[in-house]
Amino acid sequence: MESLSSPEGMGMGICYGNGSGSGGAYSLLLTALSLIPASHYLYALCIVVAVFVYAFLEFHFIEDVLFTGLRGCSVRLTYNPLSKLYQDVVSNCSLLHGRYLATPWLSSPHVQTAFLNYFGKPPMVSYTREIFAASDGGNIALDWLASSYGHGNTVNDPISKEGSTPIVVVIPGLMSESSAAYIKHLVFHMAKKRRWNVVVSNHRGQGGISVTTDCFYNAGWTEDVRAVVNHLSREYPMAPLYIVGTSVGANILVKYLGEDGENVPVAGAVAVCSPWDLLIGDRFIGRKLVQKFYDRAIASGLQRYAFLHVPFEILITMQPAELDNLRRCSSANYIGNVSVPLLCISALDDPVCSREAIPWDECRWNCPFSNKKLNSNVVLATTKHGGHLAFFEGLAGSSLWWVRASDEFLDNLETSRYLHLQKKAVEVQKSPGPHTAFESLIDQGPYVNVSAGMVAPMVSESDQPCDGSAEISTDSLDPPSESGNGTDAPKERKPAAILRSEQGSEAGHVVSPFRRCLDLILGQSRRPIWLLAHVALLVTWPMVGSALRVLLARKLRKDLPAPPIKR
User: What is the DSSP letter of 4?
Assistant: First the structure.
């Protein structure tokens, strides 16, 4: 056989291969593959690995270039259009009405999240520690920002008991404390730009403090936050209090605000990357292979916490979290009762807190399944990208978008007339319990099954905020009375339509099942009644059509003359 390096030899080799059977064809193929340089195989392997990593880590750089021209995606705001919080505060926030573009070389939710914790290069800060003793004997470390260095040095003045400088209370996430990178970014930005006092309320057992009682913190434990906030309001009565909660800290914050309603000495709050529904989050965290790394990382952190603080005889008797406990600890059940101006920030590609748990409707209505009233206290801001508590921006990735957005919101809230003022005395009594039923989003249908056994709410993310109606009350954020008599301002007379709606809700708890189901469907879908009629027609058409065809066939047989008989 001639050499395959020449065209003539190649042609003869193929001819001979065809004549000698399949074995000759394979040998020719292997011979041809051996002629390809090894470097080309290396290039092909690199391309395959790059495509796999790009898809596995959910990069979106190509999408950012082709579809947005590196301008980023718009921030989506969910709110009721009659909300005074939006009209007078959020409407002045340029970041919430702009676009967010992730740092190009960090255009992956997983890379952003990992980079934040390991290579984020946070500013250098120093704290002054205060040990707060809870009523049950537990100790909580309150770390007050003393100074910060990086992009401009900041040294805070000693806090005066009679000072009116706002105080920002930061609630870290699970297994996080004041030394976390994202916490340092937040406290540095708040102190540098606004010169506000910032204190990080570490969880029990965090910040180098030992657990002195048999009580440990969890995603639904609000007693420590309540005690710390009441302590600060007593010590600094003239200073407005703001709270920023992150991750599990955001879940604790929203649950606390919903439990106590009007009875909180908090002027405003921000919840960032809250898990919202812990039952949905528990199913989500182990769904994909890449998310199991987060599951293992969280489990490893909790194991270290348990071995450090929990006695062995108690540790071996601890049981896994029950579904009912997850439902009770989920903040989505309490957001409808929040009476404090609240901004919620979430990323749709958050690898830890699923987008399926975001309470879209609860951020518009106080109670979406019964008497609909305007939730004028909550604005939900969602971005398409951002990861978990990352939101890196700029070519250098030196700043976090959610930190700047939170700072801008609180600054506009501080200069507005709609700061929340506690209606009762500062000495807050313990709330007798939540004002809403312990119901998970899973119990509030209609719902569909998702892959891997996941059960999630059937809520369309493209639903736009619905229009207001005559029965919507907008009194919850009205400015307080300026009479100066130290008492609450008299409530304004409500329109007759609102009074009839409230009287009907008090006296009409017994509603027919059909009406309740109809209100539920209309409240979820936001579609007119003719769409329901169209769906009903499509569902019943096979039976109705068959019956009509039988009736028409019988009628035609009666009307038509009988055919002639052939002889």
Answer: T
- E strands, 370-486, are 378-383, 392-393, 399-400, 447-450, 454-457
Residue written as token pair 């703001």: 242
SS3 108: coil
Instruction: In whole angstroms, give the CA distance from residue 371 to residue 506.
Output: 10
Domain membership flag for residue 206:
yes
pLDDT at 484 exceeding the cut of 80? no
What separation in angstroms does the CA of 204 have from each of 139, 217, 286, 460, 549? 7, 6, 27, 38, 73
Cα–Cα distance for residue pair 101/393, rounded to 1 Å: 6
Query: For residue 119, what are the domain limits?
Result: 75-148+165-424
Q: In this structure, what token pair is assigned to residue 415?
A: 């200069």
**Whole-angstrom distance, CA of residue 187 vs CA of residue 549:** 74
Give the amino acid at 452. Answer: A
Q: How many CB atoms lie within 10 A of CB 54?
A: 15
Whether the per-residue pLDDT at 477 is higher than 50: the answer is no
Give me the number of domains the chain comprises: 1
- pLDDT at residue 152 is higher than 60: no
Nearest to 340 by CA among 226, 221, 422, 244: 422
pLDDT at 521 over 70: no
Both tokens assigned to 167: 């105080």
Q: Shortest CA distance to 376 belongs to which of 337, 434, 425?
A: 337
Alpha-carbon distances of 374 from 79, 336, 342, rounded to whole Å: 9, 10, 14
| CATH code for the domain in which residue 374 is found | 3.40.50.1820
Gyration radius of the chain over CA positions: 31
| Domain presence at residue 155 | no
200, containing H or E segment:
strand 197-201
DSSP collapsed to 3 states, 506-523? HHCCCCCHHHHHHHHHHH
Tokens of 551: 């009736």
DSSP class of residue 272 equals E
pLDDT per position as a tens digit, 9-26: 444 444 444 445 567 888
Contact 521, 532 (CB under 8 A): yes
Which ranges constitute the DSSP H helices of 70-221? 84-88, 109-118, 181-194
11 within a domain of the structure (yes/no): no
Looking at the domain assignment, is residue 502 inside a domain? Answer: no
Q: What CA–CA distance (Å, rounded) separates 564 from 567?
A: 9
